[in-house]
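Researcher: Last one for today. Full complex below.
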Amino acid sequence: GAGVSQTPSNKVTEKGKYVELRCDPISGHTALYWYRQSLGQGPEFLIYFQGTGAADDSGLPNDRFFAVRPEGSVSTLKIQRTERGDSAVYLCASSPGRRNTEAFFGQGTRLTVV
Amino acid sequence: DQQVKQNSPSLSVQEGRISILNCDYTNSMFDYFLWYKKYPAEGPTFLISISSIKDKNEDGRFTVFLNKSAKHLSLHIVPSQPGDSAVYFCAARASGGGADGLTFGKGTHLIIQP
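Model: Here's the assembly. Have a good evening.
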């Protein structure tokens, strides 16, 4: 597709379960970002990949959160032992990788932990 | 500690008039600023950006002004159209160090009245 694709669009899980959220970036984009948006807030940076490596994971809230991008394209955000406070919209964005280039966002995955 | 602040949660403007959305920042390392627009159930879409070496950038109906000494930027939309009704996020990045992701404000909900 032409844009950033995220699956699933909605995910409901029980507290304590493990979830994976997937992001397909725009073809050719080397930079990939994950953000989290809670109700009434702006997107909050989680992690940035340049190619296959996590260049900056300073936004991950704790060690229950982990993300991979093994082939430099698709990325998966993994959350272990989910908590109700993890409920949010998780946004993925990609960019060509040049500095100061705007990032293109996907539609997000709405995660609800019950 | 909010480094990017949008102090107006909402703004109502009559169609055809000018919309002015404001944003303040506290981190003097920020040197690149962006505005994103977001419709419900969609990801943010890039609108316009400005580098700190400029004080104005214009793209069609949209103009962003940057006042570095005041750490303030604003987005002007003129004339405002019904399709401009959305949530607008101000975002900033520091190119020399700091997190590689964007720091967002909480957003301003712009409502264009017919």
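The mean pLDDT of chain A is 93. Chain A touches chain B at residues 4, 33, 35, 40-48, 55-56, 58-59, 91, 93, 99-100, 102-108 (CB under 8 Å).
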